[in-house]
Design a protein that fits this description.
Layout (H helix, E strand, L loop, with lengths): L26 E3 L5 E3 L1 H7 L3 H8 L5 H11 L3 H4 L10 E7 L7 H9 L2 E2 L1 E7 L4 H4 L9 H7 L3 E2 L1 E4 L5 H13 L6 E6 L3 H12 L6 E6 L18 E6 L8 H13 L6 E4 L5 H8 L6 E5 L14 E6 L23 E6 L9 H11 L5 E6 L7 H14 L5 E7 L3 H6 L6 E9 L3 H9 L6 E9 L12
Parallel strand pairs: 3-5, 4-6, 5-7, 7-8, 8-9, 9-10, 10-11, 11-12, 12-13, 13-14, 14-15, 15-16, 16-17, 17-18
Antiparallel strand pairs: 1-2
Helix pairs in contact: 7-8, 8-9, 10-11, 12-13
Pfam families: F-box-like
InterPro entries: F-box-like_dom_sf, F-box_dom
């Protein structure tokens, strides 16, 4: 944002794409109100239109474009109608939770800007005395302002709880702008009619490429998204609160989304346990390059040759690898380069992490990055997993990056044997007798290795001290 002081000052306005040889613009306001424009401003007026649009397209503040740019460029009024001049501007629209009214400054941006890079909706309950003066005095609601909005927006974020009237207004506005909308984040909640309105509006966005859905615990789903969103490339799905048991409606909704976008989907991030129908739908997404799934869905990626990044998470005690899961066969994941295992909650040692890691090690011989993270409540699984992690390190000597949040002394010689290692971040608990040897082993590792190695000396057996009573 430009800030003009009361006394004489200069503004050096350079285009970041033309380096130090680009013209400098000087705006010199005086206390008397007279304005002196140097010859550099005249040079700016003669710049090609494409150069000016590139300069203005890097400004991120809408107020600067509306109020300040015209003071240093007389051609701005003509260029302001070009969407390229607003390419970097994003706007957050705060909606009053009870009245659905918005601030004057936000309404002004939505009515005058021809394009925005991102529009975010958020709800507010209370405002300060200064903010109260900025509220729309005439009682114009969000719907009335959106009816006047003609700007094209590629990214919309509606991860908040709106009233039914505000939801209707946002959904109707998104449907009118479906030809430009490419990315959507939405919180699907409210009463039945409100949720159906949200899902039906999502179905109408035929050009949508990225969808982030946050769904309430038990949605009522009536196949609104069946055979829709055929251009979707990125899907992120989560629930508002953690679930021990996933309702069937979640599974059906996910299955419809995955089937509809099976031909184009490249990235998925799903934090709920997939049911059998959703797993079968995920198997049809043969163009996936990265996937973040719960461990129980490992059978869905058994033959995805295009997969480059795989993250498997254990988020609840019920999330386990099924005994009859179809594990990846040897060499079927040759394209996999990054494997990440996140254990975030208390689980038993028989959840299947070990056999799953062994199967993935055989299926993906070209893994270059291994990440194993244990949550604070999952420390009981560390000793049981250590042997499987050691075997993975032995069978993948070409690893270039390793991150292990917790482990023991048996990992030290395996890590030292990785000759191509470039990034190492481990946190190991070493018996006191082996601590010195482990330190020397890591010090002797050669090569341009960066990272952090934390070795914590611990007692192998707890010692008991008895105090003599006087």
């Amino acid at each position: 944002m430009f800030r003009f002081p009361a006394k004489a000052a200069s503004l050096d306005f350079r285009s970041p794409i033309h380096g130090s040889n680009s013209p400098s613009l000087y705006f010199i306001p005086f206390s008397s109100g007279r304005v002196k424009i140097t010859s550099a401003v005249i040079i700016m007026e003669n710049l090609p239109t494409e150069v000016l649009l590139n300069i203005f397209g890097r400004l991120k503040d809408a107020t600067t474009l509306l109020d300040c740019v015209s003071l240093v460029c007389w051609r701005w009024n003509a260029l302001a109608k070009d969407p390229r001049a607003w390419a970097s501007v994003s706007c957050t629209c705060y909606v009053m939770q009870k009245t659905s009214t918005i601030f004057k400054s936000t309404a002004r941006i939505l009515k005058h800007a021809p394009a925005l890079s991102k529009l975010t909706f958020r709800t507010r309950e209370l405002v300060s005395a200064e903010e109260a003066a900025d509220l729309i005095a005439d009682g114009l609601t969000l719907g009335e302002v959106l009816n006047l909005c003609r700007c094209s927006i590629s990214t919309v974020d509606v991860c908040c709880t709106l009233t039914m009237a505000a939801t209707q207004a946002v959904c109707a506005w998104m449907e009118r702008n479906s030809h430009t909308l490419r990315s959507l984040s939405m919180f699907v909640n409210g009463k039945l009619n409100q949720r159906r309105r949200q899902l039906n509006s999502i179905k109408s966005l035929v050009h949508l490429q990225e969808l982030v859905l946050v769904v309430r615990e038990s949605p009522r789903y009536q196949r609104e998204l069946h055979e829709s969103l055929t251009s979707l490339r990125v899907l992120k799905y989560s629930v508002s609160t953690p679930l021990r048991k996933v309702p069937e409606n979640h599974v059906r909704l996910l299955a419809d989304l995955l089937r509809g976008a099976a031909a184009t989907l490249c990235h998925v991030d799903i934090d709920v346990i997939l049911g059998p129908s959703a797993v079968q739908a995920l198997k049809q997404c043969t163009r996936l390059t990265s996937a973040t799934l719960n461990m129980g869905a490992v059978g869905a990626v058994h033959a995805m040759a295009s997969l480059r990044e795989l993250t498997l998470a254990v988020r609840s005690p019920d999330d386990r690898c099924p005994r009859n899961a179809e594990m990846p066969a040897v060499g079927t994941l040759c394209g996999l380069r990054l494997l990440r295992l996140n254990v975030e909650t208390i689980v038993k040692a028989d959840v299947g992490c070990g056999p799953m890691l062994q199967a993935l090690g055989l299926a993906a011989p070209n893994v270059a990055t291994l990440v194993v993270n244990y949550g604070r409540s999952a420390s009981a699984l560390v000793p049981a997993m250590e042997k499987d992690v050691c075997e993975f390190l032995e069978t993948h000597p070409g690893l270039t990056a390793v991150t292990i949040s917790s482990g023991g002394a048996s990992l030290v010689p395996r890590l030292a044997g990785l000759t191509d290692l470039q990034d190492l971040r481990v946190d190991l608990r070493i018996p006191l007798n082996d601590w010195g040897t482990s330190c020397e082993t890591f010090r002797s590792m050669s090569g341009p290795i960066r990272g952090v190695v934390k070795l914590i000396p611990v007692e192998v057996e707890p010692k008991t001290f008895r105090w003599m009573q006087r």
